[in-house]
Amino acid sequence: MDGNAPFKTRNNLTHRSFKRLAELSEKIAEQRHIIAIRRGLLLNTPFVVIGSFANMFINLPLPVYQQFMINMLGSQWKTIGSAIYNSTFGMLSVLLVLSISYFLVKSSVLAQNGSIYPKMTSIVSLTCLIAIMQPLSNHGALGLPLNWLGVFGLMPAILTALAATEIFLYLSSIKKIRPSIFFDEAEPVISQAVAGIFPAAITLLIFSLLKFVTITGNVMDIHQLVYDLIKFPFMELPNTLSTVIIFHVMVQLLWFLGIHGQNVLGAIQQSIYATAADKNMTMYLDGGQPSEFLTTSFINAYSTIGGTGSTICLIIAILIIVRKGNTAWLAKLSILPGIFNINELLVFGLPIVLNPIYLIPFIVAPIIMTLLSYTAMAVGLVPLTNSVFNWTTPIFLSGYMATNSWTGVVLQLIDIMVGVAIYLPFVWLANKQKALKMNHALDTLFQLAISNRVTQSVLARRDTVGNLSRVLAHDLREALAKQELLLEYQPQIDQNEQVTGVEALLRWHHKVYGHIPPPLIIVIAEESGIIHSLGKWVIDTACWQLRNWNDKKIDITMSVNVSATQFDHGNILEDISQAIDKNGIQPKNFEIEITENIAMNTDTKTKKMLNSLYQMGVRIAIDDFGMGHSSLSYIKNFPVNTLKIDKSLSMDIAKEKNCKEIVSSIISLCASLNIKTIVEYVETEEQRTVLRQLGRVHCQGYLYSPAMSPDKAYEYISKMNDVFTKTSHKNFSPGKFL
């Protein structure tokens, strides 16, 4: 019997549980309403960041800092931070209604076919939110209740955005209530606006009727009703451990749903735990022993370290698991606010709101930390809390202030370690899920690039592929500026198995996504407008490397790929001429590889540029011959020095007679025209044997060598060319140097 069987069983059960959780999370995350909410939250990340730091700015509980700000700016200095906070977090419900509605309607058929404007739908949703609000009265003047426009009104705002958008979309699909009016001389938006009059009016009427019904039923404020219903079960609960656990579960669930949990249940916390905290402090100051375990000081110092959900533990877990990317950046940015227990940046930016993966640790971590801390105090390892402090008091300082003992600080440290351990597997799961999603998008992008099926701008796409494309475009620009790109060189071997040339191949190792294939780099570079800068760098680097090898007595041809965009809009002729002159190399040793679609281009400018390069002495090669656009007419129309046979013909040359006959014909024709032939993707001995029978041909492929760094390429070329000039080394194997 296997002694490790129980362990393996538990391990398998855990693996299956995480797998099910990942699958469930993926299904929920791909639901269109959840996508709209998530994107709406992410779109407002800048305002959450700004608001979080403004909140920290005005609430730092350091007397020296507070007095310094008063001395420098006056007693009203907090007005600055308050104004910023009120315009960000104080308007978050409004911002979310607009953004969630926008993203939800963007995915609809009506928006995609141009029948409806997403921005108009956002405006309709905002009007519906205002319709159900109870206006404030101040000396006869009515105004909007600011508390419901901010974080306190998130849940009603989210529900309003979803409901109003769906109602408006449904009504807009009914052609009978959409006037088809077109104004030839006006802005095109006016026809969309007029067509939306009746759908917008009916949608707004529905929400106004809802307000009428609630007022008729003596419910004046719908927002307040939602909060009162949530608070009701907690009104008469005693101050016990089970109560605080229920309290935490409810607070975390409210936050998960986008509702500010502490503010909803703030009255409960004040009536139960704040009273207990005052009692403990009074007893301590009178020289007695505190008797209440569960106080506001206990909750702030030990249950919600770093903010609700003990998110300082999540920040640390992210920094352990995720070293690069947006999530790591967000965690680093959240460290300072998190130390002061301000975590809205992480809650709304990651986001935790409506993110199924983080629901379990978000609820469990505070509960486990509460139980651990309660036990430590119950057995006398740590004193009971005996003071009251501001909720923004930094971690560890709050632990000391709560208990007036260093053991309180040690307990906080242990709590954090336990919390990190709880969050770690879920951070790993979230990171893995994100990586799989990004890898799938990367594969899709690569397939588009190599299949020439990029029929629309990948940078303009509004899906995961588009997001990844924009990230890569930004990072490629930075990589080029920081010299993080490099060239590797793949040897080209003649029938005497000597290296006659190399092809320079672009390499980019992305800090997050690893190796990015060259075809994808080119697509991104072309769309982002840096192909000319990138192409110039490749030419300059290749020419410099060739000069370096020339100085070491290596005389070979350097081949560089050139894209169609470089020919159409770039200064390719000038770039090559300057690179050759600057590095002092022979033009005959420099070769550009162009694709068949460039060669078949009858454009006068292209012909002129190719002829100029040829007259300069630069060699011209046709790359990927045989991929589907093949025509030998360009051999007559253009100066061609080299023809490179594509893998579609070379891979099966040892197995298929047709491939062998076609390649044989091409080699014979090129030989008669004094055109060099290179067969790509030579990877087996069988291929080499067949090619040797077909005539004078050069080979390039993994049978000889993959692309190599400059140093390894130099060593390979030196040994290959030197060894094969000596008859005593006829059995030399090039693979031994790889």
Strands, helices and their partners?
Layout (H helix, E strand, L loop, with lengths): L4 H25 L2 H12 L1 H15 L3 H11 L4 H11 L3 H15 L2 H4 L5 H15 L3 E3 L2 E3 L2 H4 L4 H19 L16 H7 L1 H20 L5 H10 L9 H16 L4 H4 L1 H20 L10 H8 L7 H11 L4 H14 L4 H6 L6 H23 L18 H7 L2 H45 L13 H18 L4 E8 L5 E9 L1 E2 L3 E2 L2 H11 L2 H21 L5 E5 L2 H6 L2 H12 L6 E6 H4 L4 H13 L2 E7 L7 H5 L4 E4 L1 H4 L6 H16 L3 E5 L4 H10 L3 E3 L9 H14 L15
Parallel strand pairs: 4-7, 7-8, 8-9, 9-10, 10-11, 11-12
Antiparallel strand pairs: 1-2, 3-4, 5-6
Helix pairs in contact: 2-6, 3-5, 6-8, 6-10, 8-10, 8-12, 10-12, 14-21, 16-17, 18-19, 18-23, 21-23, 22-23, 23-24, 23-25, 24-25, 26-28
Description of the molecule:
With 738 residues, this protein is α/β, with parallel strands linked by helices. The chain is built from 35 helices and 12 strands. An 8-stranded mixed sheet has the order 3-4-7-8-9-10-11-12. The chain has a two-stranded antiparallel sheet with strand order 1-2. The chain is elongated and about 105 Å long.
